[in-house]
Amino acid sequence: QVQLVESGGGLVQAGGSLRLSCAASGRTFSSYAMGWFRQAPGKERDVVATISRSGGSAYYADSVNGRFTISRDNAKNTVFLQMNSLKPEDTAVYYCAAVEGMGGWSTFRSENSVNYWGQGTQVTVSS
Known about the structure:
Helix content: under 10%
Oligomer: single chain
Number of strands: 11
Structural class: mainly beta
Number of helices: 1
Largest sheet: 7 strands, mixed
Distance between the termini: 40 Å
Strand content: over 45%
């Protein structure tokens, strides 16, 4: 069993930055590929970024590529999402997700593949 707890959301002006954190319980964190999803009001939840178990591979949605960076610290059981040059359209609830095993981008595209979810953290970008 893995519990995921996000933090770091908040209100920021367009052009600003936020860093989200997701702390995982348990001693098998490095066994899971990790990802960040987001859900804007009235829209479906979509994957934003994923990172492999070792942290050696990362993938991004086109809408955030070049602005967001996903990273992880396996010693601290934590995954991060650094968000720069934020836009009002980045406003959403952001969720941390864990997939056991390799868990590449295509795996995270199917929400049914996600083994564990965090509770979400609100990010609001004002114009």
